[in-house]
Amino acid sequence: MLRNVYYSPHMAFTLMSVSSIDNAGFSLLIKGGTCIVHSPKSNIIGCIPLVWGLYYVGEFNSSPTPVANSALKLMSISELHCKMGHINHDDLCKMVKEGMVKKIELDFNLKPKFCKVCVKAKADRKPFLKKSKMVYMAYGEKVIANLWGPARVESLGGKKYYFLFQDLSSHKKKVYFLWAKSDAFGNYKKYKAWTEVQHSAQIKIFRCDRDGELTSKEFNHHLENARTIHHLTVHNSPSSNGMAKQGNRTHMNTT
After folding, report:
1. Which CATH number fits domain 143-254: 3.30.420.10, 3.30.300.350, 3.90.470.20, 3.30.460.80?
2. How confident is residue 196, by pLDDT bands cut at 50, 70 and 90?
3. Nearest CA to 197 among 139, 135, 141?
4. 59: confidence class by pLDDT, cuts 50, 70, 90
5. What angle do CA 169, 188, 238 make, to 5 degrees?
6. Residue 71 and residue 61 in contact, taking contact as beta carbons nearer than 8 Å
7. For the packed helices 217-225 and 184-199, what is the interaxial angle rounded to 10 degrees?
8. How confident is the model at residue 161 (pLDDT cuts 50, 70, 90)?
9. What pLDDT sits at residue 6?
10. Given phi > 0 = left and psi -120 to 50 = alpha, else beta, which region is 45?
11. Helices marked H in the chain — which ranges?
12. Which among 12, 62, 20 is positioned nearest to 37, based on CA atoms?
């Protein structure tokens, strides 16, 4: 089976379906670089030469025997779109009209069909904004967090992880050092209590990565009871939590 055929000027005359010939009752004899086609009555109806590894069905054969010619198929723009490697429909129409693609008759009356392959394979992702347009006025309106670790070197207390919180109104950061990632939920509750006492505020929106420790049923249940909205970053897109990541680098460079 041929894949990724982007341009074939003699496409309609190049490909031959052996199964279709067999189903029609014809037979093939391949010998000495020639494919001989026999009718159901064993009469020779065509000889196809071997050209560049393919048995090319074309009108140029100088053999005295009859030549097997394929009929031009009226093709839809969607079929040609798939055969030519999912090129833009308008570009394909232009190529056919200007003769850049030969041996193809395109049905311009048929409208292009929706192509799932193009959506899944070609859909691009727009870059995340470097600066948010939202302005938060009070402490706790939105808090972002990042769970980091393990560190290659343990702290004096034997801890390898830390949980960084940053309030987006004041941009103040608070860090909790952890022995394991499983301590994240307990330290979130500590930060929540600290916010309530020191700032007389509630955490209204909490944004974090999709770590399993931050998306557990226990964590989600706690946020729901506190009426806190849980924002998660986009899948496989650390840049969507860029401010927290920058806070990580700042914290690591100053400690």
Report:
1. 3.30.420.10
2. very high
3. 139
4. very low
5. 65
6. no
7. 20
8. very high
9. 46
10. alpha
11. 11-14, 18-23, 77-83, 89-97, 116-122, 184-199, 217-225, 242-254
12. 20
Domain boundaries, the chain: 11-117, 143-254
Q: How far apart are the first and last CA of the chain?
A: 60
pLDDT at site 110: 78
β pairing state of 205-208 and 229-232? parallel
Backbone torsion region of residue 212, taken as left when φ is above 0, otherwise alpha when ψ lies between -120 and 50, otherwise beta: alpha
Token output for 224: 């729901």
The strand order across the sheet containing 229-232 reads 173-178, 161-167, 143-148, 205-208, 229-232
Q: Which two tokens stand for residue 41?
A: 């009555």
HSE-up (13 A, CA, CB side) for residue 21: 18
Q: Say which residue the tokens 């341009």 belong to.
A: 7
* Residue 220 confidence (pLDDT): 94
**Identity of the amino acid at 73:** K
Look at residue 203 and tell me whether its pLDDT is greater than 90.
yes
Cα distance between residue 80 and residue 186, in whole Å? 59
Tell which residue, 155, 150, 151, 252, has the closest CA to residue 211. 150
Task: Report whether pLDDT(141) > 90.
Answer: yes
* Mean pLDDT, rounded, of the chain: 78
